[in-house]
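Before any further analysis, backbone shapes were mapped to integers, which produced the following:

***
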Amino acid sequence: MGFWKALAAAPLLALAAGGGLADEMGRMDYIQGCAGCHGETGMGQGPLAELLTIQVPDLTHLAAQNNGKFPMLEVIHIIDGRTGVRAHGGPMPVWGTLFKQDAMGESGVFGGPEAVARARILSIAYYLESIQQ
């Protein structure tokens, strides 16, 4: 959690603006947590994809599949996983819970562990928006 602990000193609201810092943080979380299945390029060809019983979706065409508009709220809900929206039939980790648990015990973070979890989810969503084709 080193990077995210350092983030506690910066306002989490900076993530709400998207771009720059949010994209880079989202890219880092994506590579560490998502690329194993979705691939580094987001096209669903990660090294674990062939081991799954479901087809891993291509994340680079989400906007194209939604009449050219990136479905930000839906993507946030799917990444979070705590809202009842389960992607891929269920095998995707519930990142909202994992990110919140990762931030437990952190003091001085505006909004606490839940804010850290939401910021990380939002930054991944911003990153995914940035790789749309």
User: Anything to note?
Assistant: The chain is about 45% helix and 0% strand.
